[in-house]
Amino acid sequence: MPVRPAKSWSSTLRLPKSSFPPRPQPADQPKYLKRCADNLYEWQSRERAAQKPFLLHDGPPYANGALHIGHALNKILKDVICRVKVQQGRRVVYVPGWDCHGLPIEIKALEKQRELHKDGEGVLDAVGVRRAARSLATKTVKEQMKGFREWGVMADWDKAWTTMDKGFEIKQLGVFQEMVKKGLIFRRHKPVYWSPSSRTALAEAELEYKDDHVSTAAYVKFPVTGVPEGLKGKLPDGQLYAVIWTTTPWTLPANRAIAVHHDLEYSVVESGSDLLLIASTRLSQLTGMLFGETEVELVLDSLRGSDLVGAQYVNVLRGKESVPQPVVHADYVSAESGSGLVHMAPGHGIEDYDVCTPLGIKADAPVNDLGCFTSSALPDDPHALEGKSVLHGGSSEVLKILGDKVLAVHKYKHKYPYDWRTKLPVILRATEQWFADVGSVKDHALSSLEEVRFIPEGGRARLESFVKGRSEWCISRQRAWGVPIPALYNEDGVAVLTDESVAHVISVINERGIDAWWTDLQDDPAWVVPGLEGQYRRGTDTMDVWFDSGTSWTQSDQQADVYLEGTDQHRGWFQSSLLTHVNASGREGAPFKTCITHGFTLDQDGKKMSKSIGNIIAPRQIVDGSLLPPVKTKKKTSGPIPQALGPDALRLWVATSDYTRDLIIGQPVLQFNHTALLKYRMTLKMLLGSMHPSARTAPITKLDQIALAQLQIVMTEVASSYDNLEFYKGINAINKWISSDLSAFYLEAMKDRLYCGDGGGVVEEIFHGVLRMLTPITPILVEEAWDHRPEWMKAEPQIHPFHRTLDDPIISPDRTVRDDNLLTDLPWLLNANTAVKTAQEEARGKKIIGSSLESSVVLQLPSQALGVFERYADELETIFVVSSVKSGGEVEGAWKYCYDFDVPGGKGTAWVVPPKEHKCPRCWRYVAPFEDELCGRCEEVVSVS
What we know:
The protein has 27 helices and 32 strands. Strand 25 (560-566), helix 15 and strand 26 form a beta-alpha-beta unit. The longest helix has 30 residues, at 727-756. Residues 1-29 are annotated as: Disordered. It comes from Hyaloscypha bicolor E.
């Protein structure tokens, strides 16, 4: 029969055709974002309204700046979890929130105000500060919300809450009232962490610790004026001095006691005319530092600390006001450093305060809000220290005044607390502050964690340690921007805080708004508490922002399924939420069922990201691809194209990271994920172009059944990983399956059938499977692929990938694996396939073949393996993508290459040899009877078409 020219056969091929673009089209992104986020959230809320919800409670981000990579990690992780739950058939409730009070916003608002009034005018009072801060927070919330939505985060954005909402503030005050009712709120003059740079008290959660802080340390001697009766007569003549060591000499004006330990041994040494009291075990280390080459004589040894308790000394810095001060016992005194005698300033040390208060020793702190000495620091010369900063030169000034009472001075590097906002050192300073009692409820709080799941598990011990380590929580702040501590003060400064007074304050705030606390006149009768006589003023302290966000559980009437934040929130939001919940919710248990923490983002060298270093990576740089080298094009009219793959690139980075540790982000990581995302797109484009309705009625081959088995295995593995919240394991499984099982095996083997044969196969099932696995991770890609499905599919009623649950079958029962041997045989078939490919590569390397179809295969197998390969005999050439396959017999040909592989019973050998037939000009297989003639299969297809 006449043969048509080869060029004409292309029109008879079923080549993949799809409108799916190789890269996202910016113009299409808004509609896909809306469908995969807002529309999906509304759909699941409506269609599953009767179901018990899965509640992910938002740890509110702080509304004081642009979104950074940490925001992306946090918000996208939450979104992926919510999408997994939707896929599992749950109704998700996720209402975003924002933390809007506190010092950083106040400072930023004031800075902005100063920029607007560079002439010095426009100094704001409390009301002006609040107005400026609210404006800034409102603007920031809108900007951050826009950014979150651009990342494809689905949520109930219309119900988003902020801590500055009136409704939130009223509920927060209600929690405070409940704690007042239980006697858990009290006011006390005691040392707290005070930030001179912020001019407010700080909680432990607001501190950062710097390991290389350098202090001026000193050894100072205090004259002993009296000893207990048991020591009289044992001491030689001469003035006895107690030697103390301090790393904060600026606190010496507030010294009110010296502590020893009952069980330590002390010695008295003579240096010149002085007798010095030092712990016995410290003498050898201190002799050189304190006395140099001066001869020192040991005059009394083995004096127990218990013998010294009750001795008296004077603090010479108090001058004429000097009175005898006691030597006391303290458990924390040791002889591991210093002199074994500890200077105690209960106004500047928490441990000192705890020891001194029961003994009736007053906590004095002659330091003002700016961290400068007051006139009372040096009673005999009020102006000598007044106004000098305790952190900047204060220690040196005090030591200068002490003169010869200073034995030695040295620099000491140690760990020291800093204000986490201003990055400047803090001090401990006794002030009147409001506290919440943690000690009486910590056991209840700890027991409520027993039923909580922690991811990673180490988070449990971390949170428990912070709860165990505190007895009180300083909840007052000396700022204007926040929720007021609803306390009233009489003319003597005595505070009134009762269930009734707080209830009345709440009722007025509910009616007039919270700013009325500052704007109303002090004698406004609306604020008068019924039954309370006399004149009272409203206080100016506001609540710790951790109390604000810690009461956010009031936004829901049920326990949250998940709380998810960074590891720093064990000492912050997780803890404040737990403590307020067990104190005031009236519900059993913790506010969360599962507590998940993620690490911090580091650059590719493992360094913390910092503006000063210049290693910050912004989320938009990942979205727009600007961190990667642009793609070169062949078109002369256009330059390089940025590798922009949209929000899915950012989402894939989050999903591929083991978030339980610190996360590395840099060009290598992003390039890897970028390549993977492009692979997903190319795979989907291939699948979209290869789906035909005729495939549904075409025969299911053993190769198809292998593909379905592999699909089912990977979908099960991915679903399990997602359910365990180990998303990176799921993505790794997807990548491995696409690379090894789908692209390199099934689709490669199927090209002949898809292009030249009946177009059958299980491509449609695979398409739905890919979308199912990618739906929680790259929803925009999934929506885009669904939008580009063939018209014949669009004409059918089909369940949207977002609406499918894991119970909805992707593979119909009549197309599932029926051969019980298939899964057992599959590894041996894959071994043989690898051997064939390896032998072909050797031939290809010697330029003997190009296409794999230019070869045939001969399998030499042990008898135990014959049955396996005979079951697939009619499909082996398709599986191996060669022109023919035979088992056994002579291995003949002008060339031959082989490779061994494992099979049942030992080793098999795959020989790659030249095909014996001729190349078919249509399908390119070497199975045609004559040169330039069609093979039988192609002849039949062409004649039918």
